[in-house]
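Revision sheet: structure tokens.
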Amino acid sequence: MTNFIKYKDLIYIHCFGPNDDNFASNKGRYSSNGVSNNAKIFRFNLGSDLYNLKLSKNAKFQLISLTTPMYTGTSYQIGILRLRTSTECIIWDSYKKTTGYPIINKLYDNETTNYYINYQPSFENSISINSNFLNSGYIEFEFEFPGVATDIDFTDVNNKSFYIHFKIVDVEDEQTQDNTLAPLLINDQTINYGHNKGNMVSRLKDSNFK
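Predicted:
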């Protein structure tokens, strides 16, 4: 009997700026650098719609597409979008050290229009989330400009441009003898039994992986 990995797309979620609980101008604004009001929290109410969705400890957050607004005074500044939730991984960045939330995306604002990008979801750029991720009834995102030293006017006109599309994926270990279901994962290395018949298993097991 062999362990295979089964991927299960649980739900695709879309959040639009006009539905932000903090949509009104400067609502949810705060200081993340102790100098200016340079950050804003977007909060989307899920109600009880997803409360019964069961997640395992292996659940992942995967970004699909994103539009972030541009605000006056943020030209040529780095903007950071964070997922405000507990995760199953240790987070460290040079700005907030271990106190920051996981970073979903960063942008460099040298344009006057909204920033839009599509992503190819993969497990290499996913974020591990807790099994109770959806139980609070809301999802929050933190948008900050660390280098801005003056208060940012987070207007409702700009806030409405915010849009994020992501999916929640669960990963299940499953024992099976059917080698056509999914590739085997060993220490983050993929072995496709349909192609190499498992011939590389012993070599990978002897390799040093982080």
